[in-house]
Automatic annotation (TrEMBL):
Name under which the protein is recorded: Putative transposase
Organism: Nitrosomonas ureae
InterPro entries, per database record: Transposase_17, Transposase_17_sf
GO annotation (BP), single: DNA transposition
GO molecular function, a single term: transposase activity
Stretches of the chain forming a coiled coil according to its record: none
Lineage: Bacteria, Pseudomonadati, Pseudomonadota, Betaproteobacteria, Nitrosomonadales
Superkingdom in the source lineage: Bacteria
Domain annotation Transposase IS200-like: ranges: 11-128
Length: 142
């Protein structure tokens, strides 16, 4: 049976598959950033009464399945997470790397509703890195 979450007057189950990238798709999500960013993203989601159900960090993009209350818009929550995490990353890396909070993430993002295919989306997010490696190997064979 599906577990629904509740607000004072609403029962809901709204999950979204969200993908966003660093500016110019630079491969910046490694080392100190990779260790720190997962915790930052989860904390920021919690501040908006949301929860990251599944997530995976790639070198040049982030996949996550996020549960957002029906009272909040997806764009508001994702914008908040991207903005505040960019500031946290800039503070952690310092000014020497020419990363300011305003210029870490690219402007847009991808979002899709999860609906009844939640397990399939969560498996896709978990196995994304393996699929990318397999695809790269196929391209090398051409």
């Amino acid at each position: 049976m599906k577990e629904y979450r509740s607000l004072s007057d609403t029962r809901w189950d709204c999950k979204y598959h969200v993908v966003f990238i660093p500016k110019r798709r630079m491969k910046l999500i490694f080392g100190k950033v990779r260790k720190h960013i997962g915790e930052v993203l989860r904390d920021l989601a919690n501040q908006k009464e949301s929860a990251i159900v599944e997530g995976h960090l790639m070198l040049d993009h982030i996949h996550m399945c996020i549960s957002i209350p029906s009272k909040n818009s997806v764009s508001h929550v994702v914008g908040f997470i991207k903005g505040k995490s960019a500031i946290a990353i800039a503070r952690q890396l310092g000014r020497g790397r020419n990363l300011t909070g305003e210029s870490f993430w690219a402007r847009g993002y991808f979002v899709s509703t999860v609906g009844l295919d939640e397990e399939m989306v969560r498996a896709y997010i978990r196995d994304q890195e393996k699929e990318d490696e397999r695809y790269d190997q196929l391209k090398l064979g051409m």
